[in-house]
Amino acid sequence: MTEERVKCWVNICVKKDNQVLLLDRQHDNFKGWIQPGGKVEFAETVFSAALRELKEETGLTALNLELKGISGFINPAIPERYVYYDFLCTDFEGQVLNQSAEGTPKWWSIDVLDTIPMQDDIRNRLPLYWRKGSFERVHYWDEEHHCIGRTETKLFGED
What we know:
Blueprint: E1 5-16, E2 19-25, E3 32-34, E4 37-39, H1 46-58, E5 61-62, E6 66-75, E7 80-89, E8 92-93, E9 104-109, H2 120-130, E10 134-142, E11 147-156
Parallel strand pairs: 1-7, 6-10
Antiparallel strand pairs: 1-2, 1-4, 2-3, 2-9, 5-8, 6-7, 10-11
């Protein structure tokens, strides 16, 4: 079967020591703390999209970007795929914005991430960014029940 639609996005996990920069997203149906990121524009590379989204949403300029994994959703019924390129950024310059269109940026200690409101997918994916090695995490959409039917996570390299 040939895929009819592929939509590409980037996620950037900005990590400094034991802290992660997240955005307090309070609009649409995707509320809670999220990492910076967004859509890859037509003809834009995924690295360029990650640099652009990070700057727009946080004010930071990435000095390094490491592609840590690929995640997303597959809807076999359509067929449609959402691909998320997951980047880790540990070296950056600039000042964090007080506010952005996507939400207020804030540094959070990794130790408290389980206590703040965020989507389960983000909560479960964040630790994959700072482990050694790469990952692939795919959710398969159940069109009949309008929910995730199953999730597969594969880890590559060291734990």
